[in-house]
Q: What sequence folds into this?
């Protein structure tokens, strides 16, 4: 499959052509790489690379629209034909787009409504879609959304402390650059020789737009951008974090309206507001020549990024790797050094020579930390287009899901014990007594019970499920965690590193152990059902439960395919109570388009 990818940003157009061989597990290979950049005075810089041969120059395209319209001619000049699909980066997908989506009229209308949340990005993204639909009207157009990766952020991250009516109107944090952060985290894990699900990674994307993302065990935990791409770091033309009281102050002092202030924060702030230039290359040159405004801008830029790195290390309970990407992150050794200096307290130290000699050819991800540093520091190209091409290929290759009801099981609080924990709680040599078999083959509930004790309270008669595991795991609901007085993280089963301590009491003794989690909702599925429904292991889906006005769609539900599994969805008691779900309920897996309301 040959895929053309558009990444229309706020100040540049990047595009590429990618091939993916037919069949499962085939890697995506880049055929062409191109960009239009630095629009000014009615022209721009243009580069293209095919087969290792790189060409660069200028072109008479004064804005993004003209550049997009010029892409078909450039492809023809390079002899690139046979495009079978077009993928698009879409900045803001709101809370609904959990993965790639086919860009039909209904979906485009939905995305267009989100334009006020990304005024510098969604219009450019949609413009690229419209041009592509005119040039290639018979090809599938697929959107990959920056916000999708961050929909795993917990409510404590996404919620603003504002009146309920504002939150009901959609005021919440989303996060952006998700495609970049997802690729960077996976590439860093590959370079470190570990699964991304075992690492705590801070991805630092520094370009004209800039953001930091905490990727905790393979999932986005938090991003510095918020409701819009304006929050967070200092950027090329965007301010980043500003006291919201500034709106009232500027209105009273300068008689500025909301639209004027918002436009200035998006287009005339950041590096541009501090120095007159939005390009870090210009700012660094001027700072080296003694320009005080440029020197302040660099210090402010680095300070803001360093502050977020420290905050996200705290949010994840530690960090294994910090990864720099984006035009500035990839190309500015001095900025990487400025951000990392002062982080020695958390075990992060750069090596001078490695930082100066970064080589990113062939999608390398070199490590630049000093020897003995507890935290790895890497640099890699963001490769958003490659990630988009991968997701477009997966989306189009996935067979249509065949409707099939999914039994919904409510999982109450319970404990999985390791052998040493069993001995400590019930005595050496003790064997649990099987009370009843569970629907998942080989699993059973025991007669024995334990007590959970936290700093606020205790919960008696907690069930034990067998068989024994290598590591003790305690699963509670969110409400249970408040009753205990402990902040239990939402985790997939088995992801226990960095989880809080809890006291377990049994008839023989007690133990203090980590492993306390709120289990992420998931579907156990056997391979036959997965194949029939067009689903893959690790895929995230939505599950609709109930009918009519009382129906509810559970998003971000993980598919876990296991040999001989009994296919059923597991939710906890809080989720069941919120939805009024009882015994015998069933759900159905829904595609995104099925639960978008075009009339909303």
A:
């Amino acid at each position: 499959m040959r895929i053309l990818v558009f990444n229309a940003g706020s100040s540049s157009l990047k595009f590429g052509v990618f091939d993916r061989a037919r069949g499962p597990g085939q890697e995506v290979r880049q055929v062409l790489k191109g960009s239009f950049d630095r629009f000014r005075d009615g022209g721009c810089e243009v580069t293209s690379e095919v087969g290792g041969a790189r060409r660069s120059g200028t072109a008479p395209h004064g804005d993004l629209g003209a550049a997009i319209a010029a892409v078909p001619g450039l492809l023809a000049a390079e002899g690139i034909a046979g495009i079978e699909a077009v993928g698009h980066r879409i900045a803001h997908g709101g809370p609904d787009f959990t993965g790639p989506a086919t860009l039909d009229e209904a979906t485009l209308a939905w995305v267009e409504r989100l334009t006020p949340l990304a005024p510098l990005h969604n219009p450019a993204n949609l413009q690229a879609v419209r041009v592509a639909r005119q040039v290639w009207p018979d090809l599938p157009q697929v959107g990959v959304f920056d916000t999708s990766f961050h929909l795993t952020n917990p409510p404590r991250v996404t919620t603003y402390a504002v009146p309920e009516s504002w939150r009901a109107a959609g005021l919440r944090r989303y996060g952006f650059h998700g495609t970049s952060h997802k690729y960077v985290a996976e590439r860093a894990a590959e370079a470190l020789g570990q699964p991304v699900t075992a690492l705590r990674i801070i991805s630092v994307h520094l370009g004209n737009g800039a953001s930091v993302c905490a990727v905790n065990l393979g999932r986005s935990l938090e991003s510095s951008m918020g409701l819009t791409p304006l929050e967070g770091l200092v950027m090329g033309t965007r301010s980043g974090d500003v006291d919201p009281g500034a709106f009232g102050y500027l209105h009273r002092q300068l008689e500025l309206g909301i639209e004027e202030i918002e436009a200035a924060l998006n287009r005339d702030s950041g590096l541009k507001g501090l120095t007159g230039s939005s390009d870090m290359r210009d700012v660094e040159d001027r700072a080296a020549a003694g320009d005080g405004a440029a020197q302040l801008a660099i210090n402010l830029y680095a300070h803001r990024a360093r502050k977020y790195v420290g905050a996200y290390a705290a949010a994840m309970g530690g960090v294994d790797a910090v990864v720099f990407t984006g035009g500035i992150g990839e190309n500015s050794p001095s900025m990487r050094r400025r951000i990392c200096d002062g982080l020695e307290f958390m075990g992060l130290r750069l090596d001078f020579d490695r930082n100066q000699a970064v080589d990113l050819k062939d999608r390398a991800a070199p490590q630049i930390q000093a020897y003995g540093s507890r935290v790895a520091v890497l640099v890699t190209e963001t490769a958003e287009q490659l990630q988009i091409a991968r997701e477009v290929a997966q989306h189009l290759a996935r067979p249509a899901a065949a409707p099939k009801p999914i039994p919904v099981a409510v999982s109450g609080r319970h404990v999985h014990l390791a052998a040493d924990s069993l001995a400590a709680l019930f005595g050496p040599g003790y064997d649990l007594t099987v009370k009843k078999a569970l629907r998942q083959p080989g699993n059973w509930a025991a007669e024995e019970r334990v007590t959970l004790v936290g700093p606020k309270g205790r919960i008696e008669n907690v069930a034990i499920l067998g068989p024994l595991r290598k590591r003790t795991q305690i699963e509670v609901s969110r409400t249970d965690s408040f009753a205990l007085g402990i902040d239990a993280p939402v985790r997939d089963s088995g992801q226990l590193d960095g989880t809080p301590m809890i006291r377990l009491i049994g008839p023989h003794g007690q133990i203090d152990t980590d492993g306390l989690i709120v289990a992420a909702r998931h579907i156990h599925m056997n391979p036959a059902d997965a194949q029939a429904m067009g689903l893959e292991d690790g895929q995230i889906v939505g599950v609709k439960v109930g009918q009519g006005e009382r129906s509810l769609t559970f998003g971000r539900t993980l598919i876990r395919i296991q040999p001989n599994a009994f296919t059923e969805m597991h939710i906890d008691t809080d989720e069941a109570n919120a939805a009024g779900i009882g015994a015998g309920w069933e759900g159905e897996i829904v595609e995104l388009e099925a639960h978008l309301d075009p009339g909303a």
